[in-house]
UniProtKB/TrEMBL annotation:
CDD domains: HATPase_MutL-MLH-PMS-like. GO terms for cellular component: mismatch repair complex. The gene is mutL. GO terms for molecular function: ATP binding; ATP hydrolysis activity; ATP-dependent DNA damage sensor activity; endonuclease activity; mismatched DNA binding. Belongs to the DNA mismatch repair MutL/HexB family. PROSITE patterns: DNA_MISMATCH_REPAIR_1 (PS00058). Residues 411-554 form the MutL C-terminal dimerisation domain. Residues 210-328 form the DNA mismatch repair protein S5 domain. Keywords: DNA damage, DNA repair, Endonuclease, Hydrolase, Nuclease. It comes from Devosia ureilytica. This protein is involved in the repair of mismatches in DNA. It is required for dam-dependent methyl-directed DNA mismatch repair. May act as a 'molecular matchmaker', a protein that promotes the formation of a stable complex between two or more DNA-binding proteins in an ATP-dependent manner without itself being part of a final effector complex. This is DNA mismatch repair protein MutL.
Length: 598
């Protein structure tokens, strides 16, 4: 078959296959054009998931007759200065959007500049152009796209349901609104509940816009990012490690005002939260990068959804540093959602008040009251006779102590040999002593390791741990690396390991359990050379074995010392597995539980 030139309408349809994937792609391209036109209010109206109607109205600069005619031509743009693809400072620059949309839908473009007496409207019906014609309108541009892919049934049948397409448009609009807090966005239509995101300016504008789009709950449980490194400015907000989601759909990335998907940014966020989040949980972030346009290539994807950094290492380092500093500044803070979960449990249906009993009904006497004398209260507050110690042991505390101005308060009791009850000036705290001390030991381990080999303590008699032969071989191979962590061991026959020294920080730990745990880790990692990369995992396993165990009874001074250490240690609001180390119930929350709030 001889080579021939393709007709213009077919060229446009092929281009549309790259640019116009679904209705949300149309919305993205057209709203980006409105943003580049200096609009301060953008209204998007849809019907049937955008398949029947997409209407974009803005109050931007508008277009005159010549610009209007060129706007529907391929490769015609006003946003590329000096034909320099290395200096992209606008959202749209390819000049293909309107031409591609007009080839697969009924496109109407109406526009008016500030000095024009009236507007002009141009219609492109599946590649056939008519106009422009005069039209009364305000300054700005109004674009309507009707019957998308109606003349291309092969493309239309691959679209999803109207509900799915509506959700995709909402997601695009959320990202555009998050990237441009100074613009008022309205999203409405017969297929949706209207969304209205008013413009916000001044200090705190970004946080206010994120609160509009992602919810005030996110802002209340997030830290602010604001650092600059190697010419890369990192801003935005990152959720606390205890404020996570089951998937990554709540992670948003913006580079120079453009919403993108990039594996470098995703990997950097994962690495920054590696020490803090629970397995299979994803942090919530809204990450904004400002970088020299010459250092990033945004022309690698037809829809401009992906990009390529020239120096990926610098970007990764800047993101990790920004999140690390913000989380460190948050200190021991934990998310309020943990307390809200507890309050929700208290008000669960199974705890609701029972219906009124029948007349003459006598409730059965609880078994723990059987054959007991009535309680006789002494005059001394808080003490009474006739009550034996319950199965859930409570550590007695000197109630003469008053809550002092410590964020985590003063220890009042210990329950179930694991949970510290503390009181501060604002409410009640429940602290998981094992999880909290595990984080403290972990952070001390990291600090010691950063300054050199971890100090060790010799065992009076080497501890012999019997293991399968293959586990012994792995530990023997890893022994030189493990000495950096303060752990010295030798092979002791074919099926045993002799432990001569252990990290001093661990104290009197379960050595056998620690060695078996490390052997399991080495089997999982399958390489002694991977120990350097698995440093955090090794420290985590050691910290778990060296922390205060559940079931240990603590004195009051020990409990208070643990609380003070938590206040002085970064990230102590969550253990190394991502679980919260404490829960705080404000006085108002407690009063609400008892119906005392007004």
């Amino acid at each position: 078959m001889p080579i021939r030139q393709l007709p213009e309408d077919l060229i446009n349809r092929i281009a549309a296959g790259e640019v116009v994937e679904r209705p949300s792609s149309v919305v993205k391209e057209l709203v980006e054009n409105s943003i580049d036109a200096g609009a301060r209010r953008i209204t998007v109206t849809t019907a049937n998931g955008g398949m029947d109607l997409i209407r974009i109205a803005d109050d931007g600069h508008g277009m005159d007759r010549d610009d209007l005619l060129l706007s529907v031509e391929r490769h015609a743009t006003s946003k590329l200065s000096a034909d320099d693809l290395d200096d992209i400072r606008t959202l749209g620059f390819r000049g293909e959007a309107l031409a591609s949309i007009g080839s697969v839908a009924r496109l109407s473009v109406a526009s008016r500049t500030i000095n024009a007496e009236s507007g002009l409207v141009l219609v492109v019906d599946n590649g056939r152009r008519s106009g422009p014609m005069p039209q009364a309108m305000n300054r700005g541009t109004v674009i309507e796209v009707r019957d998308l892919f109606m003349q291309v049934p092969a493309r239309r049948k691959f679209l999803k349901s109207a509900r799915s397409e509506t959700a995709a448009i909402t997601d695009v609009m959320k990202r555009l609104a998050m990237a441009n807090p100074e613009i008022h966005f309205v999203l409405e239509g017969s297929d949706r509940t209207a969304s209205n995101w008013p413009a916000v300016t001044g200090e705190g504008a970004l946080g206010a816009r994120l609160g509009q789009v992602m919810g005030a709950d996110f802002v209340d449980n997030a830290v602010t990012l604001a650092t600059a490194r190697h010419g890369i400015v990192v801003a935005g907000m990152a959720g606390l490690p205890t404020y996570t989601r089951a998937n990554s759909l709540s992670q948003f990335y913006f580079v120079n005002g453009r919403s993108v998907r990039d594996k470098v940014l995703v990997g950097a966020v994962r690495a920054a939260f590696a020490d803090y989040t629970f397995r299979d949980r994803f942090p919530v972030v809204a990450l904004y990068l400002a970088i020299d346009p010459a250092e990033v290539d945004v022309n690698v994807h037809p829809a401009k959804a992906e990009l390529r950094f020239r120096d990926q290492g610098a970007v990764r380092g800047a993101v990790i540093k920004a999140i690390g500093l913000a989380l460190a500044a948050a200190g021991f803070k934990a998310s309020t959602s943990v307390a809200e979960d507890i309050l929700g449990a208290f008000s669960a249906p199974e705890m609701a008040a029972p219906s009124a009993p029948a007349p003459g009904y006598q409730p059965p006497r609880p078994s723990w009251q059987a054959d007991r004398a009535p309680l006789q209260f002494d005059r001394q507050p808080g003490r009474f006779s006739g009550f034996t110690e319950p199965s859930a042991r409570v550590e007695p505390v000197d109630y003469a102590l008053e809550p002092v101005d410590f964020p985590l308060g003063t220890a009042r009791a210990q329950m179930f040999d694991n949970y510290i009850i503390a009181q501060n000036e604002g409410g009640l705290l429940l602290v998981d002593q094992h999880a909290a001390h595990e984080r403290l030991v972990y952070e001390r381990f990291k600090a010691q390791l950063a300054s050199g080999p971890v100090p060790s303590q010799a065992q009076l008699i080497p501890v012999i741990v019997e293991l399968p032969e293959e586990d012994c071989a792995r530990l023997e191979e890893a022994a030189p690396e493990l000495e950096r962590f303060g752990l010295y061991l030798d092979r002791f026959g074919p099926r045993a390991i002799a432990v001569r020294e252990t990290p001093a920080l661990l104290g009197n730990t379960d050595i056998s359990g620690l060695i078996r745990d490390l052997a399991d880790g080495l089997a999982e990692w399958d390489s002694a050379a991977a120990l350097t990369d698995k440093m955090e995992a090794i420290i985590g396993r050691m910290a778990c074995h060296g922390s205060v165990r559940s079931g240990r009874r603590l004195r009051v001074d020990e409990m208070n010392a643990l609380l003070r250490d938590m206040e002085a240690t970064p990230h102590s609001g969550q253990c190394i597995h991502g679980r919260p180390t404490y829960v705080e119930l404000k006085k108002g929350d407690i009063e609400r539980l008892f119906g005392r709030s007004r």
